[in-house]
């Protein structure tokens, strides 16, 4: 069955099950790095917000014989009921820049992989990356969500990209505090989580003690934390703390690895590692870059190697 036919059948069955007071729609959603997903939304008459349920993975399960159409629809309905919001959100505040400016933050995406998206959104180029902007929305029932800022919003607000960037530069480090941890500490956390807290720290410490010191930089939520490399003075202060220049390895859009340059690591080997990790360990949507970056302590700037 073709993908379009599959998604149409899912929509029709969800529509039948939900009834006349619901509107069920299919829409294509452009995600990071050019990924386009087919989303299904179920909107109640008395609400203006709904979770988007992406059907691409369901289709893969279906064509590979791991799920029937009934299984898919059952799971879609269950996902909807678990995530639906029984209220409307007043979006009138979004019409006024003064109402949203303290919620504007930035994130980093790959320029080449997001050419089409960048035509429609305000951005500032940074090396082979682009700084783009979003508005953080906090609602009691919704938790924290974000709205990507488009060119049409700038026209509505009558603000420049530079003004947006100045607001985001101040807000992002306040709303999304950075966190730098040693790789050893991160590995300990992962192992503790996998072992449900039953973890013998003494047995594992020697394993990491002789390794090259490497650090993980992200924000405390570990979501889109690669933008922390833009925080004013952060990279400079880190270089002063370790007493050397350092490599910046783009692990994903969510985090960066920092490697002190005093250990004479070959940049070619690191680039090869970046490519292997991106190709085998990181989803296409979460790849930041295949490039290697370097913070030069003497020059006080980040360069692309």
Describe the structure.
- It is a single chain.
- The protein is α+β, with helices and mostly antiparallel strands and 305 residues long.
- It has three domains: 3-83; 92-172, no CATH class; 178-304, no CATH class.
- The chain is 37% helix and 25% strand.
- It is built from eleven helices and 13 strands.
- The strands form three sheets. The protein has a six-stranded antiparallel β-sheet with strand order 8-9-11-10-12-13. Strands 4, 5, 6 and 7 form a four-stranded antiparallel β-sheet that branches. The protein has a three-stranded antiparallel β-sheet with strand order 1-2-3.
- Helix 1 packs across helix 3 (69-83).
- The longest helix is centred in the N-terminal third of the chain and has 16 residues, at 3-18.
- The protein is globular.
- The termini are far apart.
- Residues 201-210 have low confidence and may be disordered.
């Amino acid at each position: 069955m073709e993908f379009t036919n599959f998604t149409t059948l899912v929509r029709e069955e969800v529509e039948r099950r939900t009834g006349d007071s619901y509107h069920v729609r299919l829409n294509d959603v452009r995600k990071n790095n050019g990924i386009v997903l087919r989303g299904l939304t179920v909107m109640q008459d008395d609400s203006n917000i709904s979770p988007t349920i992406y059907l691409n993975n369901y289709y893969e399960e279906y064509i590979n014989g791991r799920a029937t159409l009934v299984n898919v629809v059952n799971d879609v309905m269950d996902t909807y009921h678990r995530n639906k919001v029984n209220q409307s959100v007043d979006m009138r505040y979004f019409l006024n820049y003064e109402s949203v400016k303290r919620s504007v933050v930035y994130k980093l995406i790959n320029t080449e992989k997001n050419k089409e998206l960048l035509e429609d959104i305000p951005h500032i180029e940074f090396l082979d990356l682009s700084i783009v902007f979003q508005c953080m929305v906090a609602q009691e029932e919704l938790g924290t969500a974000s709205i990507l800022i488009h060119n049409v919003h700038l026209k509505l607000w009558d603000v420049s990209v530079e003004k947006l960037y100045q607001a985001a530069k101040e807000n992002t480090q306040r709303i999304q505090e950075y966190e730098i941890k040693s790789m050893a500490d991160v590995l300990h956390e992962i192992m503790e989580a996998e072992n449900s807290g039953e973890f013998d720290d003494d047995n594992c410490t020697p394993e990491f003690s002789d390794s090259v010191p490497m650090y993980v930089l992200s924000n405390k939520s570990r979501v889109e934390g690669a933008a922390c490399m833009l925080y004013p003075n952060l990279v400079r202060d880190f270089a002063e703390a370790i007493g050397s220049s350092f490599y910046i390895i783009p692990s994903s859009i969510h985090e960066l690895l920092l490697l002190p340059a005093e250990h004479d690591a070959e940049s070619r080997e690191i680039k090869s590692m970046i490519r292997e990790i991106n190709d085998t360990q990181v989803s296409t949507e979460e790849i930041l870059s295949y490039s290697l970056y370097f913070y030069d302590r003497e020059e006080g700037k980040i360069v692309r190697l």
